[in-house]
Amino acid sequence: MAKRKPKRKKKPKPKHETVPLAEVLQGVELPTDCPEQVLVGADIDVEIAPLVRALTQAGAVTLGSCSGHGRGDACVDFAVRGLDGIRKLVQLLNAADSDELPLMDVGLNWSQEVATACCFEEYPDWVMFSLKIEEPLEGDLAALAKGMSSA
User: Fold this and answer.
1) In this structure, which of 19, 35, 63, 115 has its CB flanked by the most CB atoms within 10 Å?
2) Is the pTM of this model over 0.90?
3) Which CATH number applies to 34-149?
């Protein structure tokens, strides 16, 4: 009979700090007709806070975010208003793009199975997207935010 391997202790998950979204967005004006999923009372990961603020200052409304906690991809789900919002998004992404930073991938949230999907009946002028940043290193998200802020 084969011997079983002894059970391995699970490594504790690294702790990550959060910050209130209201604090991150202090002084930034949110549109009044934005998608209702916006939770200004929520906490977000400290590492992604500068990126969320940069997107919001540019007119996007964040619907969810995760820094990846040093173990995976970071992501931000957000909405922009109409064609002008899409144009501004492209400008932001181009300004932030750099060979020294991780790959960014943007996708349209079109499926109703996705919590932050486009809901054109309720928000006819808004388009929802997901921004994925592949395995960011320490400082990468802040660098992306700085690049976006320069646009």
Assistant:
1) 63
2) no
3) 3.90.1150
